[in-house]
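lol ok so funny story. i was supposed to be doing the assay writeup but got distracted and ended up predicting the structure for this chain instead. priorities right. anyway since i did it might as well share w the group, maybe its usefull for someone
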Amino acid sequence: MTESDDITIARRHRAVAGPRLLLAIAFVVLTLPTDAQAYIGPGAGFAVGTTLFAFFVAFFSGLAAIFLWPFRWMVRAIRGRRALAKARVERVVILGLDGMEPSLAERFMAEGKLPNLSRLARQGCYKKLGTTLPPLSPVAWSTFSTGCNPGKHNIFDFLTRDKRSYMPVLSSVKITGATRSVKIGPYRIPLGKPDIRMLRRGKPFWNVLGEHGIFSNIIRVPITFPPEPFRGTLLSAMCVPDLRGTQGTFTFYTTRSETDDDLISGETIRVKRDGPVIRSNLIGPDNSISEKPGPMTCAFHMTLGANGSATLKVSGDTHELTEGTYSPWVRVAFKAAPGIKVRGICQFLLLRKHPEVELYVTPIQIDPDSPAMPIAHPSVFSTYLSKSRGLYATLGLAEDTWALNAKLLGDDDFLHQCNQADDEREDMFFDGLEKVKRGLCVCVFDGMDRIQHMFWRYMDADHPAHDGQATTQRRDAIETLYRNMDVLVGKTMRECDDDSVLMVISDHGFNTFRRGVDLNRWLEKNGYLTLKPGGHGKKYLAGVDWSRTKAYAIGLAGIWLNIKGRESQGVVDPSEAAALRQELAEQLTGLRDDEKDCLAVSKAYNAHATYRGPYRQESPDIIVGYNNGYRISWEAAIGQPTEQVFHDNNKAWSGDHCIDPKLVPGVLFCSRKIKDERPRLMDLGATVLDLFGVAVPPNMDGRPLAVADAGAPEPAAAISESSTQAVVTS
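and the output, tada:
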C-alpha cells in the first residue's frame, strides 16, 4: 500500500480524524535518520549515544506500529464513535493568543479594526478571563491544561531555586545524565538515556479526553516538554531547550575590537578578516562522551562579496547571504565521535559588512527532522511536520528578546523572528484543523506576547525607553499585530462549522513596565536580608550572608524564606515561618515609589495561605502583585542586589504582565453564548470535557462554564465568583 493509497482511505473515514493524521506519521518512520541520538537540557550538560538494544526496540516498534495500524484503526474507530455518543459537539478548537490585552482588543474592536473578533463576539460572546497568581505564562498555561491552581500543578514561576545552592533553576523540567557508561578508547559511551523529567504535575485535560477515546492535536502549548504520551499528537513549546541545553543562546560574530562581552543569553566571538574571508566556528553542546572536556564546534567560513552579499559554507552546504536579510533555516552538524553527529538548525543574519563585519546567528535549535531529544508525541510527529511543512523553530522561546535588549538586533530584525514563528505555527495549526474533524485542536501563538513585551515603549510616551523618533511601523507594531491575529481568527472561523465550538483565549493581559523593584534591597533595608562586605552587584545571591538572612528574592514571582531544614543554610525556625510570611505580606502591600509618588505594590500574597494542594510548600512564600507600571527589577530576578529599591527600566523589554492578576485578565471569545460573568482560565479544561460528555475529574479546581448548544438561547446563569480569588484557591 502506498502513501497516497493510505491518504485516500483516510479521507473516506473523515469521522475518525486521529488515524488520518497518524497515516502520514507512520510513513515518515521509515525515513528517520539513524544517527545516534543526543540528549541535552538546562544544567544537565550533554550526553550522546544510546545502546543497540534501545535502537532495535525503537526500530521494530516503528515497524510494528505500521503493520498493526489497520487493527488499531478499527478499534479506535469503534471506540471513537462510542466516546462521542454523549458529546454536545464534534470538535472544540482553542486558539491561544498569548498575552492579548482586553483593553486593546476592546479599543480596536470599537474602532472597527478587528472585524472578525467583533463578529465572533456577536455570534457568541466576549468576556474577560480570570488569570492566575502570578499571571506568568508557565503558571497560567499549566493552569489552563490541568484545570488546577498552582498548588496542584507545581509551577509558580519560570524559575525556582536550588535549595542547596540558592542558584536559580528552571521550574518546569529537570534533566540528568545517564548514570552508567562504558569506556571505549578516548570515549565514554552512556548506557541508556538521560532522565528528562517534567516538573509540572497534574493531568492535562486532553489526556483525560484520550482516556475516553477522543483524539487531540496540541500545537505549541507552553509547559508540554518533555511530551507526555496520550491519544493524540503534540508539539512541545516553552522550555524546549536549544542544542546547547540553554533556553536560547545566540552568537554575535564581529571584527570590532570593543564589544559588550557581558551579554545575557548570548555571547560575542571576535573574528578576523583574511581578505574577503571570515573563518570561525559555531559553538555546540559539550561533548560528554569525549574525555577531552569542552563544547563541540562546527567550522564555517563566509566570503564577502559585492553589493551587500556574502557566501556562507557550513556542514558541507553553501548558502547565499544578503546584508540585512535572514537566511532560511540552515542545517548544521557537530561531530561527537566517528559516525556520531548531533544535528541542529539555525539562521544567519549578516548585519553589516562595512566598516566592521557583524554576523548574528540565532540559537542553534533542535533539528525537528533528527531531534536530539523528543520534542513531540509521537516522537515522529516533529519529523512529519518538517517533511510536510518545512523546517521550523523548535526552541521554546524562539523570539530573541535579549538580542534586541542588547541592541544587536534592530526592531525590524526582531519583528521578522516573531512573524516567522507565527507563520510556521499557523501552517501547523491549519494542517491540524484539516485532519482533525472530530476531537480537540489547540494551538498557542506567542507573537502577541513577545511583540508587546518589546514594543510597548512606543505606545507609552512616559516610558523611560520611549523613542520619540520612532517610525510609523514601530509605533503601529502592536496594532498591526492585533489586526494580523484578527485575520487569523477569521480564517479559523471559516474552518469551524456549527458542530464545532471555537474559543479564542489569552492567558493574561498586558501593561507597561516603567520601573523595576529590587526586592532584595527592600529586604536589606528592612532587616530581612544581610549582605557580605562588597555583596552589592553580585549575581545569583553570591553576596548574601546566609547566617543573618531571613528572606531573599530570585525569579519573577516573589520572595522565599530562608527556613531551617528546607534551605541548606536556613535560619528561620519552621514554627516562625507562618508569622513571618504574614508580616512580609502586610509590609509589602501598599509599597510606594516616593520618587514617582506612585503605588508600586497593589497586594503581596501569603502564598501558603492562598494556594491549595500538595505542592503548596514548593511555592515562593510571598507572591508580589505589582501595580501597573512596576515589576521586579532585572537585577533582583537574577539575585543581584543593588543599592536602591526602584530602577528605571530602559530596556526594549518595556511591557509586562508580572503584576497583580486583577490588573491583567485575559480574554475569552467563544462562538457560542456563555452566561458566566467571571469565567476563569482554569475553567476551560473542565468546559471542554463537559462539551464532550466526559466527567470532570474531582481533583480539577475548574468548573464547566455554561455553554449554549448550537442555535439555542443563552444558558441559565452559572454561579459566579471573584475571578481573582477563584484563580488561586481550589
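The mean pLDDT is 87. Residues 411-435 form the longest helix (25 residues).
back to the writeup now i swear
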